[in-house]
Amino acid sequence: MIGRMFFCFLLLLTLHGCGGRPSVPTNPPLGIPLSEVCDRYHVTWEWDGVTQVVMLEYKGNKSKALVGSSTVLLGQQQITLSAPLRRDHSTIYVPEDFEAKVLAPFGVPLEGLSPIESTSRVHVIVIDAGHGGKDRGTIAGYGIDEKEVVLDVAKRLRELLEGAGIRVIMTRDTDDFISLPERTVIAARSKADLFVSVHVNSNPDHAVSGLLVYYLDSLERKDFYEEQRKENERTFLHSLIAKDSPTVLAIVTDMMESLKTSQSQRLAKLIIREGRQESGVKVRGDGIRLCRFFVVRNTLIPAVLVETGFLSNRQEHSKLGSPLYRQKLAEIIARGVLDYANE
């Protein structure tokens, strides 16, 4: 029975142009070492040097692939990768969509994240994926839109934080246009502890690259009278104040602003610290920048805006198109948030 199933598996791959023993490229192939990916996510794998079959297992979920083929069998499902698995000497290489198409359906959790502690100061977070819909964001002329990259990173970040016990509210989780005022209203209504906005940068100087985190260190006098901020204050602070008094409201507003400034800076530093510890990710300079972005300025809780890289830089543009790299970015932000939460 087992022999018949294996024969059917090879027959299926043959129909996809993989008949016979696959050829092995003589030059180093493009892709990511399978061992690196599996070690990263603690997935068990074996490779049969005779049949060239790769077998993977994670918590009872099993998958099979054949070196030289782009077809992967995941349970009863057939998945087609963007490129075939390849071998150079004893190293198996997989294409960059392997993690998203094969490991994600496995339910592989992200490593290195500790759950929030009972004394954590963060239980709810708003994740804001920038742009969306008609607003493509940074394009940079290389065929990838900012709105797509940041939504993918934001979803990965949500999965990480929810896995650690934090409730996540997304300003958008589809390709929809959400105005800047709407994003701050979502934050005001959420009673969240943190606001994290995810973006991708651009610069006329294409040599500029690196991760940056922005925060607001102080409000100008005119900011206190900005209509959107006043509306958000009414929404957010009235849930915290029993007595509807302008004096009490002003005191609480001032207290909230002082807290926001110091804690936003702390969160920014922790995210950058995690970024410096992640191999393959560059941090630009000290990694911290001050800003007056609308969504940061008009939220009342600690808020940062993470620029995950520069689409205008060809090398970073290529990285930002990689599911594995986006996963790294999500992990950096998540670890920074959890470091902050459990301090």
Query: Taking Cα atoms only, what radius of gyration do you get, to the nearest Å?
Result: 23 Å
User: Regions with pLDDT < 50 over 5+ consecutive residues?
Assistant: 9-29
Alpha-carbon distance between the two ends: 56 Å
Tally of DSSP β-strands: 14
In CATH, what is the class of the largest domain? Alpha Beta
Task: Determine the mean pLDDT.
Answer: 83
Major sheet: order of its strands? 10-9-11-14-12-13
**Count the helices. How many?**
10
Q: Biggest β-sheet, characterized? A: 6 strands, mixed
Class inferred from helices and paired strands:
alpha/beta
* The CATH architecture of the largest domain: 3-Layer(aba) Sandwich
CATH topology of the largest domain: Aminopeptidase
CATH superfamily of the largest domain: Zn-dependent exopeptidases
Helix content: 25-40%
- Shape label: elongated
Strand portion: 15-25%
Helix/strand order, N-terminal first: HEHEEEEEEEHEHEHEEHHEHEHH
Question: What would you say this structure looks like, in words?
Answer:
With 343 residues, the protein is an alpha/beta fold. The chain has ten helices and 14 strands. The strands form three sheets. It has a six-stranded mixed sheet with strand order 10-9-11-14-12-13, with helices on both faces. A five-stranded antiparallel sheet has the order 2-3-4-5-6, sandwiched between helices. It has a three-stranded antiparallel sheet with strand order 1-8-7. The longest helix is centred in the C-terminal third of the chain and has 32 residues, at 246-277. The radius of gyration is 23 Å and the shape is elongated.
